Amino acid sequence: QKEVEQNSGPLSVPEGAIASLNCTYSDRVSQSFFWYRQYSGKSPELIMSIYSNGDKEDGRFTAQLNKASQYVSLLIRDSQPSDSATYLCAVGGGGSNYKLTFGKGTLLTVNP
Amino acid sequence: EAQVTQNPRYLITVTGKKLTVTCSQNMNHEYMSWYRQDPGLGLRQIYYSMNVEVTDKGDVPEGYKVSRKEKRNFPLILESPSPNQTSLYFCASGGLALSTGELFFGEGSRLTVL
Hints:
By secondary structure, chain A is mainly β. Chain A has strands at residues 4-6, 11-14, 19-25, 32-38, 45-50, 54-58, 61-66, 71-76, 85-94, 97-102, 106-111. In chain A, strands 2, 4, 5, 9, 10 and 11 form a six-stranded mixed β-sheet that branches. In chain A, strands 1-3-8-7-6 form a five-stranded antiparallel β-sheet, with no helix packed on it. Chain A is globular and about 40 Å long. Chain B is mainly β. The radius of gyration of chain B is 13 Å and the shape is globular.
């Protein structure tokens, strides 16, 4: 069974700092990788997707993928209190494998 | 407004009393999926569907049934609920033209089985 592991947290950073969230996955053939944000009591929302090795930037968010190391990360620059949430890493099989496996999430708190 | 709608949002029931949680999406998405979220266990996939009449098991399908008779609807059926099915349930949908990991989630249905 495919496993997705995230650093357990909680992670606490001061406002304006860089928050770094990490994720490893067990299935070497995985093809698609996602970061979802979930505020307390709310449903997950997609914030980043990445499919190729390297970095992908979107505003203050940067996703990094290293398939050889089976590692994906999310960097949040200039962290804001509104970034305080649980961040979920999700891994998809790609091709005809449509199962999506989520990690347990990392709780991030940004302190003003 | 693009949305995934689940009902009921909250439900308390008793062991063995059949229940259905409905899920409907208005985005013409082919892919739909059910997840349960439990403290310390994260989001786990129950069932998913690639299109009408096409469904497959996720990681925790035991005790659940689904059907996909229409593209927009994907109900989750608990034939004989048990206390270990007390959980927060999310329905999600996505288009096959995109990766099936780019999902839109409903607001969640909190189920308590006594």
